[in-house]
Structure formats: C-alpha cells, structure tokens
Amino acid sequence: MLPPSRAQLGLFFILLFPANIIGLWWAVGSPLVMEPNSICRKMKRLAGKHAELCQTEPEIVNEVSKGARLGLRECQYQFRSRRWNCTNHNKYFGKILQQDIRETAFVYAVTAAGVIHAVTQACSMGELLQCSCEVIRSRFPPHPIAGAGSEASAWEWGGCGDDVEFGYEKSRQFMDARQKKGKSDIRTLIDLHNNEAGRLALKNHMRTECKCHGLSGSCTLTTCWKKMPHFREVGDQLLERFNGAIKVMGGNDGKTLVPVGHSIKPPDQQDLIYSADSPDFCNANRKTGSLGTRGRACNSTAMDLGGCDLLCCGRGHREEAVVFQENCLCRFHWCCVVQCKKCTVHKEVSLCL
Ligand SMILES: *[C@@H]1O[C@H](CO)[C@@H](O)[C@H](O)[C@H]1NC(C)=O
Ligand SMILES: *[C@@H]1O[C@H](CO)[C@@H](O)[C@H](O)[C@H]1NC(C)=O
C-alpha cells in the first residue's frame, strides 16, 4: 500500500486523532465545554503546518474538529442503510481514507464542507475574534422574493448573514494542508478535488433569507441576508454526487486527471471523483477497511438499499425477537407534568447472517 498523501495526512489529523481525544472528553463531560486549547496541547508532537495552526489559532482548530465531526455524522446518516455505513472504527476507517474509492471521496467532501459550516457558524455567533457575521455593503439589492411584499416595498441587505469566506479559507488551510507545493501525485489531486467539491456544495448553495418590517404587516421595508444551507441539504447533494461519481486516472503529464472511458463527461468542480473501484463491503477485510455486514439490521420487505437481499449479500438473514421498554399511555397533568406508563414492546428485527 502506498504511503498516505499529504492531504490524507491532513484528514487523519483532524478526524482520527481528535476522535480519540473526543472519546476522552465524552468520558469527562460534553466536548462542547472543554477548553479550546486542549486539542492542540495533546498534539504537541505534530510538526509542520498543523502544529503551526495549533499555536497561532487553537480556537479555530477546535471549530475545525467540530466541523469534521459534523461531516462524519452526516456521512453516517447518508450511508445508514448501505453496506459501508461510515462507521469510524479507527483502523478500518483509516483504510478507507487511504484509498481513492467513491466512499473516500464522499468522506473528504463532507468533512471539508463540515469544516466550513462549523467555522462559519462560530463566526456568525461571534465566538471567534478573527471573523464575524457578514454585513453586505453591496449597492445591488437582493433579488426580490416572488410573492413576498408589495410592489412598492424597498429591499435592502441588512441583519447579519453568514460569511462563508473565512470558513472556506480555513477549510482549505486545514484540509488541503500540504507542506510543499508542486510535486503532486494523482491521489493528492483527487483528494484536493473532492475537498473542493465538498466546499462548493455548501458555498454555491447559500440561501437568501428576508424579513418584513412595517406597521401591521405591511412590508414597507424588507431586509435580507445570506444564510448557509442546512447541513442535511449539503449531505443530500453530496450523496447525489457520490451516486454519479466519475472515475479518473492520471494524464500523461502526471499533473492532470482524465476521465476513464470515452463517453464519460469530464468532471466539473462539484463532481466527486475516484480512481479505484470499491470493494463490495460484504465481508470484513482489514485491507480494504470493510467491516462486513454480518449482524447488520436489515429490512426484510424492502427490495432496495437496506433490504436484506442487498445488505446481507445473499447470505440470508435471521429474525430475532427484541424486547424493550417504551413510554406509553402518556397523560398530561395540570400543570405541568407528563406521566407515562412503561410498556414492554416485542419486536422482530432481521439481522444479516
Ligand atoms: C454500521 O455498521 C457497523 C458494522 O457492520 C454496525 O456495527 C453498526 O451498527 C452500523 N450502524 C448502523 C447505524 O446501522
Ligand atoms: C421496510 O421496507 C418497507 C418497504 O420499503 C417500508 O414500508 C417499511 O417502512 C420498512 N421498515 C422499516 C422498519 O424500515
């Protein structure tokens, strides 16, 4: 196996190493209350760009780490009923990151987008000194929203919008970290492309939100500001790109990527790209990072993803009775308690053999 590229080391740094530390934090309390310096203190041994960022901007490193976790949670949601479900089991997940399969592309893209999201949110909330929310000083009014407000109302930029530029830069700095420019191998090019595709899935889909001001519901003035898309929308979009991911290989000059196959369109900036075919993820395999699907809960009536046929790779499934307690027959008592009974629920689940 080839050594990891620089960009891959960047993601290892953010995703895997803090994951262990995050585990520690969970043991003592919420990761949200820990002091920002702690990630960096634990990372003293690191050298290069990341160590430098730790020293100069520890509070941003903290947001970056939050963003990476946001990306990972979204990956787990989007892949919840697939054979590979984005479980961040350290060793196996590390193997996924070292390849250049579609799944790798998705992880890179969604974490790069998560980082912009977390940093930008912190900026908008006034939690970082380096950035703030965006006050648009454009003289061009926002696009009037169809159906809202009367003809005569005035529109202007106002309020405090999400300024993605700072988060975008930070995502680039952290995710694309390479010590030297130039000598780029094909894998690095692919990783960098997918990082950027993830960032664009967020940046190119900013929303405009508006609010009416005026007496008794009249819209004498409407102010508008920019908002980031919900992260779920970013995840949905990236999943579509995952489904249509484009296979590439290195061009003759060693610096460009060309699509594989003749009828295939060249990838645009927002496409996810990969160079190696995915394993089937049916069986556990340390080399490919597959945990296998044995024991996975599946749906015996569904024929698509998540259905036992597909998920269990034809090995079949068994039914298992599970018993658990659930709140039921809840009643509201004035004022203000809800009292519930405990009911025992019997349920059949299907598990892959
Ligand atoms: C994802 O897969 C792993 C390994 O097969 C399994 O342990 C885990 O429960 C799965 N997660 C979900 C949400 O299905
Ligand atoms: C199983 O799949 C069927 C058909 O797609 C669906 O109607 C049902 O809600 C699914 N059950 C569960 C537990 O997800």
TrEMBL record:
It is found in: Secreted, Extracellular space, Extracellular matrix. GO terms for biological process: canonical Wnt signaling pathway; cell fate commitment; neuron differentiation. Keywords: Developmental protein, Disulfide bond, Extracellular matrix, Glycoprotein, Lipoprotein, Secreted, Wnt signaling pathway. The keyword Cytoplasm does not apply. Gene3D superfamilies: 3.30.2460.20. It comes from the Eukaryota. GO terms for cellular component: extracellular space. GO terms for molecular function: cytokine activity; frizzled binding. Pfam families: wnt. Its main location: secreted. Ligand for members of the frizzled family of seven transmembrane receptors. Belongs to the Wnt family. This is Protein Wnt. It comes from Geotrypetes seraphini (Gaboon caecilian). The lineage of its organism: Eukaryota, Metazoa, Chordata, Craniata, Vertebrata. The gene is WNT6.
